[in-house]
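Structure (tokenized):
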């Protein structure tokens, strides 16, 4: 077509229904799976979806999209932490942040050389809030930023909750009051959503809990003589950002809209309709398997945190260690977003997205409904004390785990594309206990869980067998020519790799003699037929008869689902619970070692 003809070309108008039909045709099963918030996604979004969205202004009163780069240094020795702090502050870190709960001697902290009048604090504690408050007051330095504690969530992982009329609660309130008199620019009341997120909470849970906890603290401090506006000045909200990119952006935007409703209900001044939000990359999405994948996961989560408008952003080290390389990668992830991607120069970058705005509106509605439900049940303290909230969150975690185990949700290097030649460093699961006095009320724990843990245990079992000289290995009996069995063989090899089990391929088996030759050359405890068709069904039957006659004590599996009723020990197929299947097979291997 000539240029002149192209300029004159016209196109017929395509209706929304035609676009929708085309979009659905590209989807597997022609539908979306509902999100963990039970939100049904559409194949495409238009301006019509924004009609129900309130005028957001999520970034209202914010002059830029800049954020503070946080790196939390940990250790038991202050001098070591101080060296890391100075190194970080000179290479892009924006805050003074360290884990005070791990320090052996809190009195060893020396703020003088850190220039706290120019650099904000970012310190969260679960047990040493009062001690740190006294230390800050005694230092006579000027502070601003965050040094806060969430009394409600601090020890939920170990199943403890403070007593409302107890000494711990009074001490916490006293410390807030005293710090307000001496360090008025420091935010001291934390609403920490990470324990709930790590236990499986979806975005609606996190938002409803955030608002409910804030209201609880406002009312509790009002009884102490703090007006709501004073308490809100001290509040900061801390979210974990998971791997569902758009949902996490929408979660943060939804919180800002929800908070405006709370601010209006308490008749707060306009400047208090915007809250300080800090974020950290999710611990739930990380794995010790193929750990460099955590760098990519952390980058994706940090990107969502920035797009969602976090005021402070933490990228956790990809291997969970305080190694110089791990810390540098974590810090540089944010520097890349700021300096190379220039994300701090883009004002409200997610605004106007039909999808994000629609998702935000739905999260707002559902989260407000959850807040009202919690309120009818007498508030956040009571729903935790009764175990109702834990049960709600546990149901979502169970679904998340099942989705990982069946590979409905995929984790590269964990349940998909696992690497067998790595040597992962497995660690014991932490108890969740923190230093300091325990709380008085025993409740159902909020048990943090990483989605990869089930597969990590499988890999650990396989590694132990290898160390005992019994490397789990499967022989793949490949029937027919390569094109006839390769797809199934690739699937089966990946299936077993997720459990640390290697596979050995037979090559083309065109007749029974080929199969038997492979069986003799490669004696295994487990074999799997791949590429089974009607034409090669007799080979399968004859192989099973041969194994029975020669009294071969082996496990035989069949790839795929078939109408044939072969006398095998089971099948390997899509949609199966990979973790359960592999655990059963490893039981057989371990039984052989222990006999």
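Design, position by position:
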């Amino acid at each position: 077509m000539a240029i002149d003809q192209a300029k004159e070309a016209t196109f017929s108008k395509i209706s929304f229904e035609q676009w929708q039909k085309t979009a659905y045709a590209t989807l597997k099963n022609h539908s979306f799976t509902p999100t963990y918030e039970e939100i049904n996604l559409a194949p495409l979004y238009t301006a019509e979806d924004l009609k129900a969205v309130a005028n957001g202004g999520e970034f209202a009163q914010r002059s830029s999209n800049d954020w503070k780069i946080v790196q939390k240094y940990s250790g038991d020795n202050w001098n070591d932490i101080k060296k890391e702090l100075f190194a970080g502050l000179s290479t892009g870190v924006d805050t003074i942040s360290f884990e005070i709960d791990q320090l052996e001697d809190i009195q060893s902290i020396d703020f003088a050389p850190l220039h706290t009048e120019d650099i904000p604090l970012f310190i969260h504690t679960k047990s040493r809030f009062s001690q740190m408050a006294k230390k800050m007051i005694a230092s006579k330095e000027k502070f601003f930023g965050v040094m806060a504690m969430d009394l409600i969530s601090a020890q939920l992982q170990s199943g403890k909750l403070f007593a409302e009329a107890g000494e711990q609660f009074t001490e916490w309130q006293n410390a807030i009051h005293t710090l307000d008199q001496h360090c008025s620019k420091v935010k001291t009341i934390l609403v920490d959503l990470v324990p709930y997120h790590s236990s499986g909470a979806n975005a609606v849970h996190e938002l409803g809990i955030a608002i409910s906890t804030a209201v609880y603290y406002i009312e509790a401090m009002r009884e102490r003589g703090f007006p709501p506006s004073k308490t809100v000045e001290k509040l900061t909200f801390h979210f974990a950002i998971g791997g569902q990119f758009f949902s996490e952006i929408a979660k943060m935007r939804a919180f800002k809209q929800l908070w405006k409703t709370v601010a209006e209900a308490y008749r707060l001044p306009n400047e208090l309709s915007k809250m300080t939000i800090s974020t950290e990359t999710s611990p739930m999405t990380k794995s010790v398997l193929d750990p460099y994948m955590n760098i990519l996961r952390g980058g994706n989560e940090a990107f969502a945190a920035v797009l969602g408008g976090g005021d402070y952003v933490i990228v956790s080290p990809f291997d969970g260690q305080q190694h110089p390389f791990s810390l540098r990668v974590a810090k540089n992830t944010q520097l890349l977003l700021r300096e190379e991607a220039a994300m701090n120069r883009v004002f409200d970058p997610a605004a106007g997205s039909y999808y994000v705005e629609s998702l935000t509106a739905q999260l707002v509605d559902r989260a407000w409904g959850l807040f009202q439900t919690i309120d009818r049940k007498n508030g956040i303290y009571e729903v935790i004390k009764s175990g109702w909230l834990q049960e709600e969150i546990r149901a979502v975690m169970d679904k998340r785990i099942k989705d990982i185990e069946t590979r409905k949700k995929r984790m590269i290097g964990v349940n998909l594309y696992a690497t067998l030649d790595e040597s992962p460093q497995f660690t014991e699961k932490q108890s969740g206990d923190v230093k300091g006095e325990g709380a008085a009320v025993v409740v159902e724990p909020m048990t943090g869980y990483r989605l990869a843990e089930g597969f990590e245990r499988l890999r650990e079992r396989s590694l132990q067998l290898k160390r005992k000289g019994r490397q789990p290995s499967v022989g793949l009996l490949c029937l027919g020519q390569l094109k006839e069995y390769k797809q199934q063989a690739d699937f089966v090899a990946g299936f077993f790799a997720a459990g640390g089990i290697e596979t050995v391929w037979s090559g083309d088996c065109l007749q029974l003699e080929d199969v038997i030759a492979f069986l003799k050359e490669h004696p295994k405890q487990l074999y799997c037929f791949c590429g089974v068709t009607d034409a090669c069904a007799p080979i399968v039957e004859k192989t099973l008869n041969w194994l029975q006659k020669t009294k071969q004590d082996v496990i035989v599996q069949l790839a795929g689902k078939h109408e044939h009723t072969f006398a095998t020990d089971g099948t390997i197929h899509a949609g199966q619970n990979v973790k359960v299947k592999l655990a059963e097979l490893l039981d057989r291997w371990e039984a052989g070692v222990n006999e």
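Reviewer-requested clarification: The domain at 64-405 is CATH 3.20.20.240 (TIM Barrel). The first strand starts at residue 68 and ends at 70.
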